[in-house]
Design a protein that fits this description.
27% of the residues lie in helices and 29% in strands. A hairpin with a 4-residue loop joins strand 3 and strand 4. Helix 3 packs parallel to helix 6 and helix 3 crosses helix 7.
């Protein structure tokens, strides 16, 4: 299933647990084992499960393999990426710096990142509450295979258009939390990993927790796995550091329990408790990233904590999350029924007609592709069980393809836990379906808007038109990358008057609607034509063209 976003929305709420005065049922271990066994039999559970009341651990067992290739079993000290459970840790750091008066929630982003677009309007509180308008994902696939830092992630976030006006609405954003991690570094005067160790890990006694990219040597790290049609496969290569501040931490259930106990006892500070503990006194933490899955739930009425960390994202996790409190309360929870996911024979051409991008919410889209006969949605396997229906092993959801009267796919209906979540198809092919003249006009308008940034003396607006992979040639000198180009061109924006201007004269667009070339005259400040520019534009998002190549040639009359 798509990264951490859908899991966050679809996570089930813990059912009622026994009162604090009650003790654990004497056969708790047997009852839990009986419920888990069907999932173990089919290989859908891998990780460590912990149940505690207060500080007392009532149940702790590990299942499956930390590494299938070497046959290494999971243990209580195996470290798993805990995905978005990293966010409460970032919030604790924020709370500690707030108490130290090193920053304030009302601080505008411009105080820390002056070159960030709309930095005067975005506040620390916007980042905290997912109301800044920063997309959930600010990286491209290649970025997620390279080591990243809060600084590099903030730069990538700065290159993405806001999906709504700051403060206008709330849309979950891991990208926004990575920007927050950079703000905390600047306010706290230390790298994020050091802030995490100082303000969270040491105070809570979390000896097996760390912020670690894939290239770091991390003892007892579990490898992560995805479902394939006939078994498991290694999760695609990625460096988890691209989720810094939002999902890059590796931990254990024991450490997550320790953090919750420290938070509730006030050892992480009163402000952290205020920001993280619900009005009911409960804690509900959930995370998913790159094949890993974890949750840590505390029920205030019973004092019971249930924590699971896994190196396989499976629908079993949500069923376990729902059932265990009931089992702990002594209810007779029947063993789960067999998982029915027999693949149907479906015309490969029909499956390919479903390919495209589907939007879970603004700023969060997932790509459906057919690769080697397998249907995958951003890495998650979908098993066709009919011509228009799929089964998702990752969350035991049924996925229905919905079409319009003309037969075109309009959305996917994702149904799990009795709820249906529509995922409209993003019209990424709209540009290709437009008339060529419409596309040419669109690119010409973008080029004129690009040229207007020079006339308006607006370097930040100029920067927003640059692709991260932009290459600008000037004579024999090539400037590679958005930042290098923007830095060089900043010199053209220092004087009150623009030193030159340009205008599109010829525009051509490929049939795919994804690449376009624009050429035209360049005039100096006196209005004399001095050169001819050539720019290549790429449509990186629906309707969003960014320049990837630019070169000027001297003009000869």
């Amino acid at each position: 299933m798509p990264k951490s976003a859908l899991i966050w929305i679809l996570a089930t709420v813990l059912a009622a647990a026994p009162s604090a005065a009650e003790t654990a049922p004497p056969d708790l271990e047997k009852r839990v084992d009986r419920f888990l066994q069907p999932y173990l039999d089919i290989g859908h559970l891998s990780g460590t499960l912990l149940i505690a009341r207060g500080d007392e651990v009532l149940y702790e067992k590990s299942f499956g393999l930390a590494n299938h290739e070497h046959g290494v079993p999971n243990t209580a000290r195996t470290r798993f990426c805990v995905g978005s459970i990293n966010k409460p840790m970032t919030i604790v750091i924020l709370a500690r710096l707030l108490e130290a008066e090193k920053l304030a929630l009302a601080d505008p982003l411009v105080k820390y990142l002056p070159d960030f677009p709309r930095a005067e309007e975005i506040t620390v509180q916007h980042l905290l509450q997912h109301t800044a308008g920063i997309p959930h994902r600010v990286t491209e696939p290649l970025d997620e295979t390279r080591p990243q830092t809060p600084s590099s992630m903030a730069e990538m976030a700065a290159g993405k258009a806001l999906i709504f006006e700051p403060g206008a609405q709330s849309v979950y954003s891991s990208g926004g939390f990575s920007v927050l991690a950079r703000v905390l570094e600047l306010a706290g005067g230390k790298p994020y990993a050091e802030l995490l160790a100082e303000h969270v890990l040491r105070l809570a006694g979390m000896d097996d927790t760390s912020d670690a990219g894939t290239r770091a040597i991390l003892e007892r790290r579990a490898s992560s796995y995805y479902f394939d049609t006939f078994g498991l496969i290694n999760a695609p290569p990625a460096d988890i550091s691209h989720l810094v501040g939002s999902g890059s931490v590796f931990s254990t259930p024991r450490d997550l329990l320790a953090m919750q106990r420290a938070l509730l006892a006030g050892r992480l500070g009163a402000r952290a408790k205020e920001l993280l503990v619900r009005d009911s006194g409960d804690l509900r933490w959930n995370g998913s990233a790159q094949g890993y899955r974890a949750f840590a739930d505390y029920d205030a009425a019973s004092g019971v904590t249930v924590v699971l960390a896994s190196n396989l994202t499976s629908g079993a996790v949500d069923r376990i999350r729902e059932a265990l409190p009931k089992i702990g309360a002594g209810e007779d929870v029947p063993a789960p029924p067999p998982i029915e996911a027999t693949a149907a024979q479906v015309d490969p051409e029909l499956l390919r007609s479903y390919e495209g991008d589907y939007q879970l919410r603004p700023g969060t889209s997932f790509e459906l592709r057919v690769v080697d006969g397998r249907v995958r949605l951003s890495g998650w396997l979908l098993i066709p069980i009919s011509k228009t229906t799929f089964f998702s092993l990752q969350d035991y959801a049924e996925v229905e393809v919905v079409t319009a009267e003309d037969g075109k796919v309009t959305r996917l209906d994702w149904t799990t836990g009795g709820n249906t979540y529509p995922m409209p198809r993003v019209d990424i092919d709209a540009a290709a379906e437009d008339e060529p003249a419409d596309l040419q006009s669109q690119v010409a308008d973008v080029e004129r808007a690009f040229a207007k940034t020079m006339a308006d003396r607006d370097h930040e607006a100029f920067r927003s038109f640059l692709s991260k992979e932009a290459v600008f040639l000037s004579g024999k000198t090539a400037r590679n990358g958005k930042e290098a180009v923007a830095t060089h061109w900043k010199g053209f924006f220092t004087e009150p008057e623009a030193p030159f201007s340009w205008e599109p004269e010829t525009v051509a667009v490929l049939d795919s609607g994804k690449l376009a070339i624009s050429t035209g005259p360049v005039w100096n400040a006196a209005g004399k034509r001095t050169s001819t520019y050539t720019s290549i534009w790429r449509q990186e998002e629906p309707g969003a063209w960014r320049i990837i190549f630019d070169k000027g040639n001297k003009y000869c009359e």
